[in-house]
Amino acid sequence: MPHLNTPAGILAPAKINLALHVVGQKTDGYHLIETLCVFAEGGDRLFAFDSMRDEFEICGPFAKAVPASKQNLVIAARDALRTGFAETAAGPVAIRLEKNLPVAAGLGGGSSDAAAALILLSRHWQLGMESVNLSETGLPLGADIPMCVHAVPLIARGIGEAIETIANFPSLVMVLVNPGVPVPTGDIFARLKSKQNPPLPALPGDLSDTSLIDWLKSTRNDLQPPAESVAPEIAESLRALEGSGAVLARMTGSGATCFGIFENTDDALAAERIIASGHPQWFVKAVETGAS
Hints:
The chain is an alpha+beta fold. The protein has helices at residues 73-82, 109-124, 131-138, 145-150, 185-191, 209-216, 224-230, 233-243, 265-278; strands spanning 5-6, 9-25, 31-50, 55-59, 93-98, 154-158, 162-165, 173-178, 248-251, 258-262, 283-288.
């Protein structure tokens, strides 16, 4: 598993939808998607400690924006993982969540936190569970959690549970921009005009930075237009990225975070400085994504 489990904690990486096509809707209301996802080498962090009783603490720059109650997916993941194991095998644990990512931002933060909790606690309790088992445990809690358990370049289909990992996928240098406007996912799906849209085209056989960018230009995020109608700041974020030299700029997930892909790290860091200086209230972060 690609998550880092060190004395510094386990990484819950930001999930970035490079493309997101909505291709149908089930009778139970769930939307069918096809999405290409990558994961940043940065995000939230989780820590687990032996304890006399279950505890949950949240710290970090966005701590006040998330609940420390059972509504938090970390707690739901803990309880779901514990189900079926004897108390001696899955005893009390203190969990600390360092919340570094903005909330309701389209970065899969809550889902990635839950996925990291499943991995961390499986190790902490020495349960010996594999990714496929943890994905099955996490799916009832959220459709994005199986993707975040894998946390490598992948295509997800269905409601997000059908996962195809991608070999030889290049690392990308990008800048993430969030204008500080929460965008509820349910509202965006409700505003989506068409629930039946063309699927993702086939990936190029020889993946490189150039072929990937060309391919991405033939894809979409079907949630971007309805999100822009709710939060005009998204369009402003995209203009800022494009104006600072991004070779491609797009919204991730249901918003409001946008990403811009840059040719190299120096260009991305320069764009980060320019955008952050012009918009000090925004979340602006240069990141690299993991390759495969």
